[in-house]
Each structure stands twice: as structure tokens, then as C-alpha cells.
Amino acid sequence: MNSKLLPRLLWPTACLFASVFPVHAADSAAAPAAAPAAKANAESYRRIAGEVEGVLKKDVLEKFFPAANDEQGGGFFENFSANWTRSPNNATRSIVYQSRLTWLSAQAALFDPAQADKYKAFSSHGVAELANLQWDKTNGGFFWSVNVSGAPTNQQKHAYGNAFAIYAAAVNYGVTHEAASLDLAKKGFAWLETHSHDAKNGGYIEAMNVDGTPMGVTPPAPATPPAAGTGTITSTITVAPPAAAPAATGAVAANGPTPAAPGAPGAP
Predict the structure, then answer these.
(1) How far apart are CA 71 and CA 121, in angstroms?
(2) CA–CA dist 225, 228 (Å, integer)
């Protein structure tokens, strides 16, 4: 065993167990009180290190591999009961879980050289799932979750999930030197830099749509030309005022003026 790798394995392994076997409040409440801690010394540290290594090998690595390995559908089964019985609903492949087991098995090859070939094979099996099922072959990037056929069950893209996949593929390349793993890590990194990196404000945008655009940002709607007959035409028309009409003194007939009515001024 390579004990120097032990601290690097513990925290990710704890996260993995928390996602597969959630701890219920009733279980933790029933736990007995811890005994007073003994004074630490070199011997006690070596003893604890040996115990932790034993638990990691027996209760983690030898449980997940091969129990989680899906030889037919690809990747790793995600749901188990407390006795490691596989749950019926095991068709989902989520990017974080698949990446974690791919990374863990690659690290296990370094941690346990005697079993290195076995763990390398599991890790490469995980990389194949990331490339063939999780990667979006149309828009690029890794889907948040897919089914065993590669159809997305959640087609969002997250920086968190994509970063996990990049890390897993890179670590696999470190132990297997398989070119496909390095290519996948580079491809994932290039996509993340293009779509997630915020060049204006710095940092990385976490949640993206399937096409890599930021979630929650509505692009401006394109201008739509008005339909025929509904447009407004604006123009300036100058109208000359009409000429003043002469004062009316009576209608003019062809044979002369008409006499005024009786009683009117000028009437006879």
C-alpha cells in the first residue's frame, strides 16, 4: 500500500459514501458516546493509519469494485441498499458520481500496486462512459445526467460536473497513459473555458443550458418587421391655406344679378 496517497483518498471517498448511503438522524442519535481520546504518540498514529488503510481497502475499494461496475450499460451503478444489494432504479448515470468512481479507481491503482491492473481497468471503463454517454456530441460539454443509452435525463451543463469529469480523465491518463483519456480531458477543459469562464468579471459561470449559454439569462429578442398593412408611415405634408372667398352679395345668374328679397337693405 502507498500510505502517502491515503489522505488524498479519504475526503473524496467520504463524499462518495454520503451520496450513496445517506445517514439518517435517528441512526446518528442512537450512536454511543465516544470514549475519551488517548494521548497521541507515534505508535498510535501508525496503528490508526493501518486501521484506516484496512477500512479503505476492505469496506470501500473492494465493495465498489466490482459491485458498481456495469459491464453491459457502461459506467457504474449508483444506487445500493445498506447490504450492497443493487436498487431497482439504476438506469441513471450522473456526471459527478461517474467521475468520482473513475477518479477513485485510478487513485486506487497507485494506492495498491498489487491490484493496479484491476483498478486501471475499472478507471478506463469509467472514462469510456464519460466519453460515450455523458459527453454531448452535438453541443459539447458533459450532461448533468443521462440514462444507460446516453439520452440526457437532465441536459443542463454545470461547471462543477464538468470539472469532475476533466479531473477524472486526467488522473486516469496519469496511471494508464491512454491517449483517449488525455484527449477527453483537454476537450472538456476547452469547452469549459469557452462557455463557463467569465471573461468580464472573472471566475466561472456554474449553470449553463444545453448549448452552453448561461442559465437564467434571456437573450434579446430579434426585431420582427411589421406585417403588411400594419406599419406606420410618417411623412410631412405642407398644405397651403385656401384663398379667401369674396363677400357674398347674392347669387349671380347668367342674365344678371338677382334682386334682393323684400325688406332687405336695398330692396325696392
Answers:
(1) 12
(2) 9
